[in-house]
Amino acid sequence: MRSIQENGELKIESKIEEIVEPLREKIRDLEKSFTQKYPPVKFLSEKDRKRILVSLYTLLVFVMLRNFLFSLRENSHIIKFTLLKDTIQ
């Protein structure tokens, strides 16, 4: 004969299975509904790829130029002091 504790554990396990089984079915259904992992990709011609590459390089150059100009603006007091010092001497 099974003990009372074993019967209680079996009841708990069966209740858990009753709750979990519909969730497993929903997961299986969702996995089946996603047939494609990624959307289809449109392959570009070489000309279009070069155009995109040039645009990215242009963007990079402008960002670097902007950063350089901002750094000049932040350090402008140092540049002004150096120029003033040179003119006084």
From TrEMBL:
Keyword terms, alphabetized: Membrane, Transmembrane, Transmembrane helix
Residue span(s) of domain UDP-glucuronate decarboxylase N-terminal: 1-39
GO molecular function: UDP-glucuronate decarboxylase activity
InterPro entries (alphabetical): UXS1_N (IPR021761)
Domain of life assignment: Eukaryota
Transmembrane segment boundaries: 52-72
Pfam family of the protein (one): UXS1_N
Protein's name according to its UniProt entry: UDP-glucuronate decarboxylase N-terminal domain-containing protein
Organism: Callithrix jacchus
